[in-house]
Amino acid sequence: MGALDSLSEYISDYFHVSRKRRKRKVKQTVNIKVKMDCDGCERRVKNAVSSMKGVETVELNRKIHKVTVSGYVEPKKVLKRVERTGKKAEMWPYVPYNVVAYPYAVGVYDKKAPAGYVRKSEQSQPLPGAPDDVMMSLFSDENPNACTVM
């Protein structure tokens, strides 16, 4: 421990200096649906997003109209920046098909969704406390492996 360290500790005991601490941004990944038709659209969106402060990587997938931005950014600011390019943009509304309990529920199945994806919805999630489909079909007449005692 040096002389300056001990002096600063001695002074800090008598004087309390409060500093406002800034909130640290969290590193996150933002997925956005953007309609991109050509290389020019793709380049314009990529340049607009990559010039933002805190952006580390930008991935574009023109086939499924998806832009993935990762870094220390806020989702709303990324969405606004993409919309400023003149493209219609929204937060990524899809989830993988195998994650959803009821993929063909009303409002979940979307013909415009990329292959293997369905729209994110509250209806697609099973109700808490609802019996499992496996348990319901365990003693069903249509189940050939059901209990033979019945």
Automatic annotation (TrEMBL):
Domain HMA spans what residues? 27-90
Matching entries from PROSITE patterns are given as: HMA_2 (PS50846)
Quick check: keyword Membrane in the entry? yes
GO terms under biological process: response to stress
- Entry annotated with the keyword Lipoprotein: yes
A GO cellular component entry from the record: membrane
Q: Name one GO molecular function term.
A: metal ion binding
Query: What Pfam family is a match, any one?
Result: HMA
Which top-rank group of organisms is this from? Answer: Eukaryota
Which CDD domains does the protein's record reference? HMA
Q: Which InterPro entries match?
A: HMA_dom (IPR006121), HMA_dom_sf (IPR036163)
Subcellular location per UniProt equals: Membrane
Annotated keywords:
Cadmium, Lipoprotein, Membrane, Metal-binding, Methylation, Prenylation
State the family named in the UniProt similarity comment for this chain.
Belongs to the HIPP family.
Q: Which PANTHER family match?
A: COPPER TRANSPORT PROTEIN ATOX1-RELATED, HEAVY METAL-ASSOCIATED ISOPRENYLATED PLANT PROTEIN 20
Name this polypeptide is given? HMA domain-containing protein
Q: What phylogenetic lineage does the species belong to? A: Eukaryota, Viridiplantae, Streptophyta, Embryophyta, Tracheophyta
